[in-house]
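Below is a filled-in request sheet from our internal design queue. Each sheet records the structural input a requester submitted and the sequence that came back. We keep these sheets so that new team members can see what a complete request looks like end to end.

REQUESTER: design group, bay 2
PRIORITY: normal
MODE: inverse folding
CHAIN LENGTH: 297
BACKBONE (tokenized):
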């Protein structure tokens, strides 16, 4: 074992999310284009005499410290898989920078980062596919959060297809300070049988992606906005700040704006923050696929 391991827990952004059906067990079927950002939470795992868990950061007070927290569920699931003898006590610190119940996969990303950090700290020989199998019972978003690369997600979210040649994107994330329960959004959904995503363009860049996004949807946006109309204000704020394309991510209430460069995104975020000082606003970049283009500012 090493002394301490730190792993990022990036925000997950659903650039498009189509609800295409519903299984007999009640789970909704989706198709989603997903990217992960350089902004997010962070998990630190350290050798300890006894298990402990601490949450720091802007949104620390909004999360439970008990085993209801997904990070601790991840710890317990990995320990159950590998055996307690190979998984001695550990101190876990979660730096919580993402809003709670905000549609950017914060809890799932925290759990995925915890699994990665503990596998490294404990020296476990678990590959990516095995880790995904351990993670799936914790939530359908876990496998994609473990991948943390541009991808298409299908099924209930567990069937993932990493994308080749996907570039880095300049993004601004905006949350008007309201949580939205995913179950409430799905309950309000008018149609559960919607057309799937269209094929992506052969070469993805800012302009081709923006054009493609205009023909896509987030089927959860309308029901979320009916629950929290302020989501519409967040989208309008992004538009006013010069976003090339604005939409809600996941089940909300976080919205994203697409910008041609990271520097343009920073200026837009500063303008939105000045007009709405109580909102969560973050300028960031998405992570390119391994063979994608990092882009230039």
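RETURNED SEQUENCE:
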């Amino acid at each position: 074992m090493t002394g301490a391991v730190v792993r990022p827990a990036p925000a997950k952004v659903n650039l498009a999310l189509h609800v295409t059906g519903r299984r007999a067990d009640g789970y909704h079927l989706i198709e989603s284009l997903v990217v992960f950002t350089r902004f997010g939470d962070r998990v630190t795992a350290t050798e300890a005499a006894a298990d402990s868990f601490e949450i720091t950061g802007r949104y620390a007070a909004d999360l439970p410290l008990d085993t209801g927290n997904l990070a601790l569920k991840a710890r317990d699931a990995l320990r159950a898989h590998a055996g307690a003898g190979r998984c001695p006590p550990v101190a876990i610190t979660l730096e919580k920078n993402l809003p709670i119940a905000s549609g950017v996969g914060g809890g799932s990303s925290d759990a995925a980062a915890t699994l990665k950090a503990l596998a490294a700290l404990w020296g476990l020989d678990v590959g990516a596919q095995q880790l995904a199998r351990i993670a799936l019972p914790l939530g359908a978003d876990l496998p994609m959060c473990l991948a943390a690369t541009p991808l298409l997600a299908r099924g209930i979210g567990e069937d993932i297809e990493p994308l080749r040649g996907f570039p880095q994107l300049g993004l601004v994330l905006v949350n008007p300070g309201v949580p939205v329960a995913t179950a409430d959004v799905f309950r309000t959904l008018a149609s559960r049988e919607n057309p799937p995503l269209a094929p992506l363009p052969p070469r993805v860049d800012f302009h081709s992606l923006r054009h493609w996004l205009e023909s896509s949807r987030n089927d959860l946006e309308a029901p979320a906005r009916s629950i929290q109309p302020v989501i519409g204000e967040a989208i309008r704020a992004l538009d006013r700040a010069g976003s090339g394309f604005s939409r809600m991510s996941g089940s909300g209430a976080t919205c994203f704006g697409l910008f041609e460069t990271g520097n343009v995104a920073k200026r837009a975020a500063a303008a939105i923050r000045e007009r709405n000082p109580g909102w969560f606003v973050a300028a960031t970049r998405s992570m390119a696929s391994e063979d994608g283009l990092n882009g230039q500012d």
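SHEET NOTES:
- Strands lie at 4-22, 28-47, 52-56, 90-95, 151-154, 159-162, 170-175, 245-248, 255-259, 280-285.
- The radius of gyration is 19 Å.
FILED BY: M.R.
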